[in-house]
Design a protein that fits this description.
Blueprint lengths: L1 H19 L7 H51 L60 H9 L3 E4 L6 E4 L6 H4 L5 E3 L4 H5 L10 E5 H4 L3 H9 L4 E3 L14 E4 L3 H4 L5 E3 L4 H5 L10 E5 L4
Antiparallel strand pairs: 1-2, 2-4, 3-4, 5-6, 6-8, 7-8
């Protein structure tokens, strides 16, 4: 009998032991669930952590997709301030030609990087006569040249003015002024090594060649004349007659002066082709008549 009840005793003993020593608390499943949840969260966080990596991969793909845009940005940065790629000097489809930037571009004969007309390169980047001096002319020399439609340049060593007819770009038009045509290989350039004469030549003349004697200057001034000058031949070298006194007035005003209103077709003007300042009708008379 004892052997028959032994399994039952063991079962009862085991039940009692289980009741006294429960190895798994009642709350353990919840904790385990929380842990699982936490683990799940961790996994999710790991998943979310891996998601940015995935995003980074997508970002790399996006970066690859955005490369054309980056290329456009790079292109835009290379054209900043010019509207065209660097290195292209054409006026369309490339860098705009800017006169005064120190670089000779298309359609520019020169570009010395400044905005002066006195150094042989104009503000429009056109080659001009360079007297060798950038100093301004004396006031009386400026007035002399201006009266005949010329600009004044200062002689580099002598200091007197040189009248320069900028718009007379050939010998034929120079003959209609008091200037003389000088080429880069001519005698004037050889005698004045500091000057620069652009091709094909320039129309110039020195103010001492045009100016009256001091006595004639005084007589003209006493008659309230504005300018005393010598009429020269078409070559701009030899006088064609007596010095002239000029009054800067219109025809009506000329009547109040010792001058005679003279037009280009008058006999006097025909005999003295450069007697009229700028070739226009003027109030003039020979100084010897004063």
């Amino acid at each position: 009998m004892s052997s028959a009840t032994h399994p039952l005793s063991c079962a009862l003993l085991g039940a009692l032991l289980c009741a006294c020593f429960d190895p798994v608390p009642a709350s353990q499943p919840t904790t385990t669930g929380s842990s699982a949840t936490a683990s799940g969260t961790d996994s999710a966080e790991e998943g979310s952590t891996s998601a940015p990596l995935g995003s980074t991969g997508s970002g790399e793909g996006s970066t690859g997709d955005s490369e054309p845009s980056t290329g456009e940005a790079d292109s835009a940065s290379s054209t900043s301030g010019t509207g065209a790629p660097d290195g292209d000097t054409s006026s369309t489809g490339g860098r705009s030609v800017v006169c005064g930037d120190g670089r000779v571009g298309r359609d520019e004969a020169c570009d010395d990087g400044n905005r002066s007309n006195l150094d042989g390169c104009s503000v429009d980047c056109v080659e001009l006569f360079d007297s060798g001096s950038q100093s301004p002319c004396e006031t009386n020399d400026v007035a002399m040249c201006a009266a005949f439609g010329a600009e004044c340049r200062r002689h580099a060593s002598e200091g007197y003015g040189i009248c320069y007819w900028v718009d007379s770009a050939e010998a034929a038009t120079c003959d209609q002024t008091l200037g003389r045509w000088e080429s880069p290989e001519g005698a004037y350039a050889a005698d004045n090594p500091r000057v620069t004469i652009p091709d094909p030549g320039v129309c110039i003349n020195e103010t001492p060649q045009l100016r009256c004697t001091p006595e004639e200057e005084q007589a003209c001034t006493q008659a309230d004349g504005d300018l005393c000058f010598r009429p020269l031949d078409e070559a701009g070298l030899e006088p064609t007659g007596a010095s002239l006194c000029f009054w800067d007035v219109d025809e009506g005003g000329c009547e109040a002066t010792p001058g005679i209103w003279t037009s280009a077709g008058d006999g006097f003007a025909m005999d003295h082709p450069n007697a009229l300042p700028e070739g226009l009708p003027a109030c003039i008379t020979q100084v010897q008549n004063l």
